[in-house]
Model the fold of this input.
Amino acid sequence: MVADMEKIIPMFRNYFKTAFRTLRANKAYSTIMVAGLAVGIAVCLIIFLFIGYEQSFDDFHHNGARIYRVLTLGQGTPDKPSDPLAGVPFPLPTALENDLKEWTTSGFFMLENIQMMVLNKAGQQEKKFKEKAGIVLVQPSFFSIFDFPWLAGDPSKSLAADHNIVMTKSTAERYFGDWKQAMGQTVKFQNHDLFTVTGIIADPPGNSDFQQMKMIIPYAIAHFQDNKDWWSVDSDHECFILLPGNVSPLTAGKQLAQLSRKYRTADNKNTQVLEPLANVHFNDKSGNYSGRAITRDRIRSLWLIAGFILLIACVNFINISTAQAVNRAKEVGVRKVLGGNRRQLRLQFMLEAFILVVLSVVLALALTSLALAPVCQMLDMPASYKLLRQWPVGYFLMAVTAAVTLLAGFYPALVLSRFNAITALKTKLAERSSSGINLRRGLVVLQFVIAQGLIIGTLLVLRQINYFTHTSMGFDKQALVTVPIPGDSAGLSKSAYIRDQLFKIRGVEKVSFNNTEPATNDNWWTDFKFDHAAKGVGFSSIQRWADENYLSTYGLSLVAGRNLTSTDSIHEFLVNETMVRKLGFSNPHDILNRQIDLWDGRFVGPIVGVVKDFHASSLKDSMAPVFLLNNKRRLNETAIRLDGKDMPATMKAVEKLWSDVYPDFVFEYAFLDDKIANFYKDEARLSLFYKVFASIAIFLSCLGLYGLASFMAAQRIKEVGIRKVLGASVANIIYLFSREFVWLIVIAFVIAAPIAWYFVHQWAQQYVFRLSISPWIFVAGGLGALLIALGTVSFQAFRAAYRNPVRALRSE
Done:
């Protein structure tokens, strides 16, 4: 055994020496191979980190496998099933708590635009905050379902009283300076309710869909506690359950359906279904509290892209290695004459490949470290270099090293070890053997099929996103700003004064008070009775509270009837064209003056007008039935149309007005076009990712072309010299070098175009409103790849064409 080791160690030492000597002698080609592999491996590593981060969301909860979210599934139609809504009817959590006592249930209601104050011991204001999001109402059992570490307080008692509040550590520090001093402190909620801090929890981690959670208050104080309406669904009102260990999801689903049938009316076809917690982060239809969702299809597409880019890098390695084989023929012949066998030669060449791959992995780690911060910012990930120190990264890199060494090194080693010793030493091997040439041609085509597919796909995705952001949604979103006002009676009573003062500010054109803009992701869906019917209409609609200036401020137009009046003594309704069709009318005038009864007589009035269809949510969703009604007690948002000339000065004047009228209220505003753009932030983020990947794919493909072209120029230097002596022009030489690559890229385009069309067509099907796939996208993608590749090859062709033929032929 010792004797064998004494032989093996010098043998491997010799292998390493020879490998390093060979790589040093071919610096240019080694650099190209290492650079290509490093970039490919770095891309794979970044995608691996991103996917690992996305798949880790909320996997830290001890009972995660038994936690479910309740979704509401509408009736839909046979040809278009309804997408499940994250919201649930308001009575559901209490009904679950009462009827299914073995389940652990918690309602979860998300509040927005909440005014908070810190009070001193004398009850006076010390600080004020405006929380756009992060305050949630939950039942005490919430902390029995989810695992959030407690720093202070008792999870079983902290929400026992109605006016207790639990804060996260960072929120407590923001409010009180030191979270340890927060316990027992008093805060004022919406300028009237006082809450006592009774618990502090650690900040939810970045890989949690509850990461925005800042403050938790008791569900029992909610104004909807006595609501018995099983029709209405607010997307901000969710419900989570923890199933007992002896109850299967199938059994639980049947129990939930039975409970739903027990309480809803016969005409209510909505039903509730269970969604595992592990699926919440990947459900972009229903969404989640973090507002960040990525589908499993996108995860799979990212894995494919990572594999394709690594494959392109491996193809570069194989192409350049096999192209150099002719230069190493005599080396192989000498080794075989001296007693080397095929196994030893394959081991030698595999070792060279392994060294290059290890160097590439080291460089890839350096590239990833440099790129991690900007990539994390681009993808909304926590920018931490600890990501690279996680144990799965080590396993991943070892797997990549082994796979790439085998994939990129095996075939070149096989080719080189097969050379006949006598032939290699007696004559120069054929530089253009058909098998080697055809392999390299096939690999170049494969590279550009992938690269052009990514380019065409990226162009089509960008075009769809451009369509989202620039297509009319049925209202005017430009130069319109929304400003919330206090929702209590004192705040709402000043709206008339606010309107009068706003019109005195230069740059303000129109003003409307409402509860939300025409398009939002936070819609309230509800049922109603139509035209004195005893039962509801059987479908859910979106409601909007609006004043008589809503249409003119947002640029909505009437197609029939009249606008709402300013009175609050009677209720009137506007409906959109989709509502008209849903109710069975083809002529919008026929629906006028028919009655709507909302919430069993609470709001009853005639339909006085029909509004031209507008999108009540993003263009990813179908057109929904919408109705608008007037009720001044619910108009807690101001919409201001600006002339767009000097908006900073105008907004400064608006802020001063708010500070004077509502001194205890934190002023904030948002432009409507920014809110609309936020609908597509996930698509925009991933499109940027795809642009980077497409650029890297074309870069790696051209890097391989550059290596092949430079090798071809070196091998054909005498041929070029002879052609120039015989009168060939520079253009002839460039054509000689370029024509084969042009044909290969054209063939790649012919293969890539239908593949790209198929996958992009499948991707676009998820969107109700989408662009048709235009042929010019394919032409632009193919032509762009061709020009970039042609430029890469032409550089080497120019160098060969301008070389002095005398120097090339001098040795002959």
About this structure: The two ends are 55 Å apart (CA to CA).
